[in-house]
């Protein structure tokens, strides 16, 4: 398989795991504190990846890179993921809306990548983004009464998506230098350890929870956090941050399918139309490129 196509395969694996996040997290409501969930999954995920680093004999990291990794970890673990958890825990919040809004993070990735790494915003990418956003809006609004939605929840989810876009671009830069495995391991550990004092100050349990949900915690830690984040940056290294992150638009589609199969939710006409727009937008970005081969190399 060609490197570029392999990169999209890595990202697809990521999105499949990420799409189970809301469904699995729903089983933890009132059983594990949402901030505790973040700490546990990133701390455990970080340790698991660190064990792999130890096995490879490659744990060394320069101090300047360690500082960058810590910033990346704080943006993701402490800020973005906690804002998403707050969004999900707002009164009358809708998990589907929060998930769909968060899935709009490729918009922010595209623009952050343009300013930070110099990735070009081409016409096909702009139209692909527009179709993807329209699809996301259709899926999120279909069958939902807006007057029953707490507006704080969508705003927090949007802020989470913005910060995740920044995390993706900065994390991608660091990952290219020190490797995805090392970047994720250290950023997860440093981010979760930065979150730890806040848990203690606000008297949030650290490791005490309803142990009947241990399987869910381990799944979120190992697969949704450890493996999925690793394959995410492995994929971005081959596709470019802007193009690779667009596959994130598939998350609301897959999340809805998982919700239908596991939670018994129904598929609506708005969902079908939104899915078509999302797939068309991704196809537009990945396969329609009017640039010459010389210019298209800038996207990689």
Describe this structure in words.
The structure is a single chain. With 300 residues, this protein is mainly α. It has one domain. It is 75% helix and 0% strand. The protein is globular. The model is unreliable at 289-300 (pLDDT under 50).
Structural topology:
Blueprint lengths: L2 H16 L2 H6 L7 H23 L6 H26 L6 H8 L2 H12 L6 H19 L10 H27 L1 H22 L12 H26 L1 H5 L5 H13 L5 H19 L5 H4 L4
Helix pairs in contact: 1-10, 3-4, 3-9, 3-10, 4-8, 4-9, 5-7, 5-8, 6-8, 7-13, 8-9, 8-10, 9-10
Which features characterize this protein?
300 residues, mainly alpha, 14 helices, membrane, EamA_dom, transmembrane helix
Quote the average pLDDT.
81
* CA(first)-CA(last) distance: 17 Å
The gross shape turns out to be: globular
- Strand portion: under 5%
Structure annotation, total helices: 14
Based on DSSP secondary structure assignment, what is the total number of beta strands? 0
Radius of gyration, in Å, reads 19 Å
**Structure classification:** mainly alpha
Low-confidence stretches: 289-300
What order do the SSEs take from the amino end to the carboxyl end, as H and E?
Answer: HHHHHHHHHHHHHH
Largest sheet: none
The overall number of domains is 1
Q: Which bin fits the share of residues in helices?
A: over 70%
Keywords: Cell membrane, Membrane, Transmembrane, Transmembrane helix
Subcellular location: Cell membrane
Protein name: Putative permease, DMT superfamily
Domain EamA: 6-140, 155-286
Short overview:
This protein has about 300 residues and is mainly α. It is built from 14 helices and no strands.
């Amino acid at each position: 398989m060609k490197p570029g196509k392999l990169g999209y395969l890595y990202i697809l694996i990521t999105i499949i795991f990420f799409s189970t996040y809301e469904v699995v997290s729903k089983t933890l409501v009132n059983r594990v504190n949402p901030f505790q969930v973040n700490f546990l999954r990133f701390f455990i995920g970080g340790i698991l990846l660190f064990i792999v680093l130890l096995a490879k004999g490659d744990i060394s990291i320069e101090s300047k890179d360690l500082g960058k990794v810590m910033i990346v970890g704080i943006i993701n673990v402490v800020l973005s993921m906690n804002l998403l958890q707050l969004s999900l825990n707002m009164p009358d919040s809708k998990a589907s809306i929060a998930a769909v809004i968060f899935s709009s993070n490729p918009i922010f990735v595209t623009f952050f990548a343009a300013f930070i790494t110099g990735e070009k915003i081409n016409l096909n990418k702009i139209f692909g983004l527009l179709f993807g956003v329209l699809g996301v809006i259709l899926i999120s609004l279909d069958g939902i009464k807006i007057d029953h939605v707490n507006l704080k929840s969508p705003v927090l989810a949007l802020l989470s998506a913005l910060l995740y876009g920044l995390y993706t671009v900065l994390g991608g830069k660091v990952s290219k230098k020190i490797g995805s495995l090392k970047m994720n391991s250290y950023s997860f550990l440093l981010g979760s350890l930065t979150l730890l004092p806040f848990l203690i100050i606000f008297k949030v349990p650290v490791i005490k929870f309803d142990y009947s949900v241990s399987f869910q915690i381990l799944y979120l830690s190992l697969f949704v956090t450890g493996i999925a984040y690793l394959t995410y940056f492995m994929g971005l290294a081959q596709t470019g941050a802007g193009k690779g992150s667009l596959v994130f638009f598939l998350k609301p589609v897959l999340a809805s399918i998982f919700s239908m199969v596991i939670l018994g939710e129904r598929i609506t006409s708005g969902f079908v139309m939104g899915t078509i727009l999302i797939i068309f937008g991704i196809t537009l970005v990945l396969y329609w490129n009017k640039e010459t081969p010389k210019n298209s190399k800038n996207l990689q």
